[in-house]
């Protein structure tokens, strides 16, 4: 078989056709000197709020800032508990810790890998203040069930939509269902900046106002600080470039869904693999295309030898990270998330990927899995 050579992500191919537009936009920012916050950020905020079907958007420095400031805006403080999942990027839990609150985890659904609402209630204590569902890989968590439990217990909900720009749950956009929705524009995300950036969306004017104040040193007016904030402003160059990329995000997400369908076709009937499941009522935006396989690390090596780059999102669940030893969780605390971490493998997924490349990756993966399963049979019969 000829080697296919597929990178995991190709930002260069994505940006090359936009280069002239980026340079013109950056030129405008340079000419206006609106580098930190300012009119370019305000314009992007208007566009992004509309995209998310939300009333307000606040541009911030990163997705991590978005999560942290959202929790601060809700008044989360030391002594509080905030519930999230262990199957996420570290930033979700870090944002909780940075408010002084304690992260409390609940396990994930074994099919969608998002928060299992059936386990949520047992994690609620008198100290619980908020819930952060994570829309992992581009599919939203089961928001109806989560919102119902949250409302019944008087808890606030912050959506971690950092992987889910434009995803929908029963026709409602990611970020627009909870009290606040948080987005990352890290370069590799579905909407990526040419650097670091993030945003918070909300329909609640008071919460939006708090984010605007918190991201800018707690100033209501220049040099009048009503609370202790931080510098978490979005920069003008990022906002100007993000506006250009936002115009094609809808189309890009549709392309990701088509590529996911092509993987599905290419891997149909393949032994020992679980491909992503889109739950009913969901519009998936496939930030990542993560399959599940036994012998994941070996398979990743075989694919690498054949020129196919893969990723692991994520190899160690948050509750087992060394940084969170003090929380006292152990292997076995969240068995579904732990199994997930041992088996997930992200295949290349980006809008410049071709259907031929997808077919090539699927064929190589099928070949490797078939070899693995015949070897397993052989060793079984020996
Ligand atoms: C990327 C990401 C973040 C953090 O975003 P940054 O912009 O890198 O700070 C948070 N949560 C999830 C689920 C992410 O994927």
Biggest sheet layout: 7 strands, mixed
Could you give the order of strands across the largest sheet? 1-9-8-5-4-2-3
Order of helices and strands: HHHEHEHEHEHEEEEEHEEHHEEEHHEH
Instruction: Identify the overall geometry.
Output: globular
Structural class: alpha/beta
Radius of gyration: 21 Å
Structure characteristics:
382 residues; alpha/beta; Aspartate Aminotransferase, domain 2; Aspartate Aminotransferase, domain 1; 2 domains; 7-stranded mixed sheet; 3-stranded antiparallel sheet; 15 strands; 40% helix; globular; binds pyridoxal-5'-phosphate
Explained architecture:
Helix 2 (19-32) packs antiparallel against helix 9, helix 4 packs across helix 8 and helix 10 (249-266) runs parallel beside helix 13. A seven-stranded mixed sheet has the order 1-9-8-5-4-2-3, sandwiched between helices. Strands 7-6-13 form a three-stranded antiparallel sheet, with no helix packed on it. Strand 10 (219-221) and strand 11 (224-225) form a beta hairpin. With 382 residues, the chain is of the alpha/beta class. The protein has 13 helices and 15 strands. It has helices at residues 11-15, 19-32, 39-51, 63-73, 91-98, 117-120, 143-153, 205-214, 236-246, 249-266, 296-305, 335-343, 355-381, and strands at residues 56-60, 81-84, 102-105, 128-131, 156-160, 168-169, 172-173, 180-184, 198-202, 219-221, 224-225, 273-274, 282-283, 289-293, 344-347. The model has no long low-confidence stretch (mean pLDDT 96). The radius of gyration is 21 Å and the shape is globular. The chain folds into two domains: 12-106 and 113-246, 3-Layer(aba) Sandwich (Aspartate Aminotransferase, domain 2); 249-381, Alpha-Beta Complex (Aspartate Aminotransferase, domain 1). The two termini are 29 Å apart. Helix content is 40%, strand content 14%. The structure holds pyridoxal-5'-phosphate. Pyridoxal-5'-phosphate binds next to helix 4 and helix 5.
């Amino acid at each position: 078989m000829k080697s296919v050579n597929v990178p995991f992500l190709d930002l260069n191919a994505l940006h090359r056709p936009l280069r002239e537009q980026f340079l013109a936009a950056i030129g405008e920012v340079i000419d206006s000197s609106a580098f930190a916050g300012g009119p370019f950020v305000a314009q992007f905020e208007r566009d992004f709020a509309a995209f998310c079907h939300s009333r307000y958007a606040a541009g911030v420095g990163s997705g991590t800032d978005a999560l942290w400031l959202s929790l601060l805006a809700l008044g989360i403080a030391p002594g509080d508990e905030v519930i999230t999942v262990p199957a996420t990027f570290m930033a979700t839990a870090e944002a909780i810790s940075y408010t002084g609150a304690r992260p409390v985890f609940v396990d994930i659904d074994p099919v969608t890998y998002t928060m299992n609402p059936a386990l949520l209630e047992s994690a609620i204590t008198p100290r619980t203040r908020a819930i952060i569902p994570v829309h992992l890989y581009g599919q939203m968590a089961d928001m109806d069930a989560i919102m119902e439990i949250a409302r019944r217990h008087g808890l606030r909900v912050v959506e971690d939509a950092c992987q889910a720009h434009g995803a929908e749950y029963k026709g409602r956009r990611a970020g627009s269902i909870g009290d606040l929705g948080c987005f990352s524009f890290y370069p590799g995300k579905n909407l990526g900046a040419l650097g670091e950036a993030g945003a918070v969306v909300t329909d609640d004017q008071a919460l939006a106002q708090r984010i605007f104040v918190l991201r800018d040193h707690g100033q209501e007016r220049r040099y009048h600080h009503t609370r202790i904030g931080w510098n978490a402003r979005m920069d003008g160059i990022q906002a100007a470039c993000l506006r250009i990329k936002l115009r094609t995000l809808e189309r890009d997400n549709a392309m990701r869904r088509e590529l996911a369908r092509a993987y599905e076709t290419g891997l149909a009937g393949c032994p020992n693999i679980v491909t992503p499941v889109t739950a009913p009522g969901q519009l998936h935006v496939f930030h990542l295309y993560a399959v599940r396989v036994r012998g994941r690390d070996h398979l990743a090596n075989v694919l690498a030898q054949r020129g196919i780059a893969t990723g692991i999102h994520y190899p160690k669940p948050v509750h087992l990270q060394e940084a969170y030893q003090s929380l006292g969780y152990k292997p076995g605390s969240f068995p579904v998330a732990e199994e997930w971490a041992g088996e997930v493998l992200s295949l290349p997924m980006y809008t410049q990927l071709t259907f031929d490349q997808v077919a090539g990756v699927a064929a190589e993966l099928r070949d490797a899995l078939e070899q693995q399963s015949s070897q397993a049979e052989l060793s079984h019969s020996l």
